[in-house]
Amino acid sequence: MARWRGVSAALLLAAAVAAQAQLRWGASLEAALQESRRTGRLVLALFVTEGCGWCQRMERETLADAKVAAELRGLTLVRLDASKTGAAAAKRYRVQGFPTLILLNSRGEAESTMLGFEPPAEFLETLRSAVADAKARPGLEARLAKDPKDVDALCRLAGAAARSGNLARARQMADAAEAADPEDRFRRLAKTLCVVGDAFQAAMRYDDAIGFFQRALKRAKGTDEVAYARLSIAACRISKGEDEAAKREIQAALALPDLSERDRRAAESMLAGLVRRGR
Length: 279
What we know:
Elements: H1 2-21, E1 25-26, H2 29-39, E2 43-48, H3 53-62, H4 66-72, E3 76-81, H5 87-92, E4 100-104, E5 110-115, H6 120-146, H7 151-164, H8 167-180, H9 189-202, H10 206-219, H11 223-240, H12 243-254, H13 261-276
Parallel strand pairs: 1-3, 2-3
Antiparallel strand pairs: 2-4, 4-5
Helix pairs in contact: 6-7, 7-8, 7-9, 8-9, 9-10, 9-11, 10-11, 11-12, 11-13, 12-13
């Protein structure tokens, strides 16, 4: 049995390598954008740097995955080494960590930014959401032009702007969504506000992020939404060195009824981390 498991693992690895080998990663951003204008395909730009272990792991484990490779075939791909010929492109898109993947439209505008290593399943979900956002955006913008209080369009555009790193646009859309649906009849606001909060947190704008998570907390309808907002606030507080305030948020999350095992483990891990550091 052990021998057959080894053979199966070898076959899966071979399939993954073959899938990655069939993908064509260009080395020129301008060439990729020209191809995008010709074909109508979105561009996925992978930014790596020399000696980056996480970049190597992303390429070896995630981008070589057969399911991920199948999804990537619908995009124009370009791999840019920010320590070499991709330095100008990395500066243009303000790439600060590696690996970074940016989904671009044919005009070279960022539709979504994905920072850091993700395992195949998580990355596939992230990528599909980003592509769906990019393809839906023109239609959503048209809907919003007809009805500035279209809550669904506002929430989806807020999320798309947050994922692309356009924080000003994300804030504008989230504020407009909350104003258009003050009673949260569509139950979209908590998730939208958390997505925008995540983007501000990633940009290390912790006070802004806390504000969005606190607004989400007021709109949250279930334990999962409440836990996410509280633990996100706690993470921001920890980053700011506000440890007692962070502990209160974590303890409040742990006291929630029907807290999921995943959220419980995350809360306990955060609390243990503070204790280990003597905070």
